[in-house]
Amino acid sequence: MEEESTSPEAPAALPATPPFSSHLSRPYFPARPAAAAFTSDSRAPSGSGAPLAGKAGGAEGDGEGDGPPPKKKKKPARPYADPSVYAHLEGLSDFLADDLDVILCGINPGVKSAELGQHYASPTNHYYKCLVGSGFTDRRLTPAEGHLLPSLYGIGATNLVPRPTAEASELSKEEMRANVPHFLEKVVRCRPRVVAFVGMAIAEVAAVKIKCGLQPIALTFPTGPPLYFYVLPSTSARVVAYQIEDKITIWKDLRAQIAKLKAGEALEVEGSVEYAVESLS
């Protein structure tokens, strides 16, 4: 969601059980091998060259000397909010269609988005900047034009949890996990080329720990190509571990992966595992 605030951590080993387990106490999504991941120290894919220059995160300080400037203290995350707190706000409509290039999945709508009925409506959010900066769209769309993404650009939009909150921290992990089966029903029905999670917090719900980039799993169907998964950093301006230039670089890589699929190429990730869609039932 727009108000997400997370920080990437090192991934754990792949679990032996298939992803998207129906048991809520288990992760749904296996972790990605570190060798092919984006990290906060190197914002480009492994093997793509030197890391990007720029701010690694935090605000600039005014300290003296050669040491790093002091970091501004993070604002404490809001505690869990009962659904009654935001009961006056309605969720957002999904922008979905069959055979999309990618479905972008956020955590849940923010307050501004719910008030306007538009995905990523906060004026400080980088979502639409990332879309145009990476070449997914030929111009910067406004949040009010988000419904055009499926028909004009082959891009879908949905959220893991439908109810709005001011911050993602106001959702419980159990609530997020409980919505995974419904999300997967949408994915299997629409069968996009790629599902991209917009934010690390979603990955943490669906997995042990995941880094940004193409994930080492795919869902296979009885016919047709497999479905791949990708993790993007949050587009919230409050997530400073990835600056806007870094985010766009990762979005460009997502677009490049989709271009390979459209050209009939298979995506290869070290240690990748395929799971039959029948295993989700």
Short synopsis of the structure:
The protein is of the alpha/beta class and about 280 residues long. About 20% of the residues lie in helices and about 10% in strands.
Structure description:
The chain is of the alpha/beta class. The chain is 22% helix and 12% strand. It has helices at residues 111-116, 127-133, 149-153, 173-178, 180-190, 200-206, 244-262, and strands spanning 102-106, 155-159, 194-198, 213-220, 227-232, 273-276. A six-stranded mixed sheet has the order 2-1-3-5-4-6.
Topology:
Elements: E1 102-106, H1 111-116, H2 127-133, H3 149-153, E2 155-159, H4 173-178, H5 180-190, E3 194-198, H6 200-206, E4 213-220, E5 227-232, H7 244-262, E6 273-276
Helix pairs in contact: 2-7
Notable traits:
281 residues; alpha/beta; disordered N terminus; single chain; 7 helices; globular
Q: What level of helicity do the residues show?
A: 10-25%
Largest beta-sheet details: 6 strands, mixed
State the secondary-structure class.
alpha/beta
Oligomer: single chain
Order of helices and strands: EHHHEHHEHEEHE
How many H/I helical runs? 7
Poorly predicted regions are 2-18, 20-70
Number of strands: 6
Instruction: Supply Rg.
Output: 18 Å
Order of the strands making up the biggest sheet? 2-1-3-5-4-6
Q: What share of the residues does DSSP label as strand, in percent?
A: 5-15%
C-alpha termini separation: 28 Å
Overall, the morphology is globular
Taking all residues together, what is the mean pLDDT?
77
